[in-house]
Amino acid sequence: MLSYKGWIDGISALLCFIFAILLGLGIFFKARKLKVKLLSYMGLNISIAGFFWIVPSLDFLIVIVTGRNLVNIYHWMGIVNFMWAPLVTLLSMYIWAELMIPRRKKLVFWIFMILSIIFWFIIFLNPSDSFLISYPSNSGAELIYIFLNESYLPIMILYFIFSLASILFCGIGYLIKSFRSKGVIKRKFQWLSIGYFIFLGFPLMGTLFLSLIFEYPITIVRIGMISSFLFFYYGLREEPIKKVKEPPEKDIIIKESLFRLTQKPKQLTKEDITFHKEQKICLVCKSKLGGSNLAFICLGCAVLYCEKCVQALTNVENACWVCNKPFDESKSSKPFKDTEEESDIEVSEKKKNKN
User: Fold this and answer.
1) What structural domains and CATH numbers belong to the chain?
2) pLDDT score of 347
3) Are 261 and 184 in contact, with CB atoms under 8 Å apart?
4) Which residues contact 81 (CB under 8 A, 6 or more apart)?
5) DSSP type of residue 139
6) Where are the residues of the annotated region Disordered (predicted)?
7) Three-state SS across 207-238?
8) Spatial distance between the Cα atoms of 330 and 263, rounded to a whole number of angstroms
9) Which of 169, 171, 221, 242 has a 20 to 30 Å separation from 2 between CA atoms?
10) 134: three-class secondary structure by DSSP
11) pLDDT for 318-330, tens place per residue?
């Protein structure tokens, strides 16, 4: 009969598996509908990560029905449990490359694709040396636990590369990028960084010291890893538009973008402008430019806009946010000025008239 510990491990694994699959698919289909490419990739990645818990979930269900654990024929349990790790890393690194170094995203993809193929080749060719499996003393009393064999260097080196790349590039990389960014972009990179630190940090903490604090550390690790998915979602979702009864005349509403802004910022720094140019991001809605998302280059300052933002701005103020050059020379231009600027201009004009 399944022990109390076995029930906790089984229920937590099954809930993690179901939650990750449903959350990932929900994010994927929502992102596809909104045409937010990176968020759809992250949704797919979350669903794939859910398969980390498929073996303990199946073992739990089999024990409930038959009273006995799964049979590990041809070492299939280790293969099915760990075959998803390279794929999760591959998608994570591709998203990172799309955000950080879009020109080299294909190179990053193929490097980790080759490493993934090597990993799969090893575990399918030599599963007996790749995994260590802990069976309960009495079949059905507890669940089966599966680990990578730390003494088998080929598999551990690859797994170390996957983990290190995720920590350095996705965790620390996004964090550093957030320090160099401002506003919405800064917050987005912070969410992504926190998500990766949680997803990778909880298993490490479970191995090092959570077992000394909690009676059931594996359950705490699973809860922590699941919570990281929410940070990924907030990092890549669109910014919601705040509903107001009477929107200001100068508000710009742009749909179907990675990030969403509704109003010109009061101040654009040189760092903001340079970042948008280098990363080929629309200055207004923060969407990536290229492919079907056509880019418009301001002839006055070379700042990039997407086609939808240019159309919206042309109808409202017809002026570049940086240099005030008209988008359409045939129309009048009304550059945006906040209330502080307008009051300063009025005061200066009054002083000139008095003099």
Assistant:
1) 4-236 (1.20.1070), 270-354 (3.30.40)
2) 46
3) yes
4) 52, 54, 55, 131, 146
5) B
6) 327-355
7) HHHHHHHCCCHHHHHHHHHHHHHHHHHHHHCC
8) 25
9) 221
10) strand
11) 888 888 888 887 7
Question: What pLDDT shows up at residue 206?
Answer: 59
What confidence tier does 264 reach under pLDDT thresholds 50, 70, 90? low
For residue 280, CA distances in Å to 190, 272, 292, 313 come to: 20, 12, 14, 19
* pLDDT, average across residues 124-152: 90
Amino acid at 130: S
Inter-residue contact 98 to 236 (CB < 8 Å): no
pLDDT at 141 over 80: yes
| Block residue for tokens 């705490």 | 220
The backbone torsions φ and ψ at residue 169, rounded to the nearest 5 degrees and listed phi first, read -80, -50
Check residue 281 and report its DSSP letter.
B
The pair of structure tokens assigned to 93 is: 């690194």
Tokens of 20: 């990750």
Q: SS3 for 20?
A: helix
User: pTM, whole model, 2 decimals?
Assistant: 0.64
Structure tokens at 114: 């080759």
- The structure tokens 């879009």 sit at 102
Between CA 164 and CA 143, with CA 18 as vertex, the angle to 5 degrees is: 75
Is 25 in a helix, a strand, or coil? helix
Asked if residue 88 lies in contact with residue 163, where contact means CB atoms within 8 angstroms, the answer is no
CA distances from 64 to 3, 9, 284 (A): 11, 13, 55
Residue 109 token pair: 């993809």
State the chain's maximal CA–CA distance in angstroms.
98
Q: 11-57 pLDDT, tens per residue?
A: 999 999 999 999 999 989 988 887 778 889 989 999 999 999 999 99
Instruction: Give the C-alpha separation, 230 to 192, whole Å.
Output: 10
Residue 214 confidence (pLDDT):
53
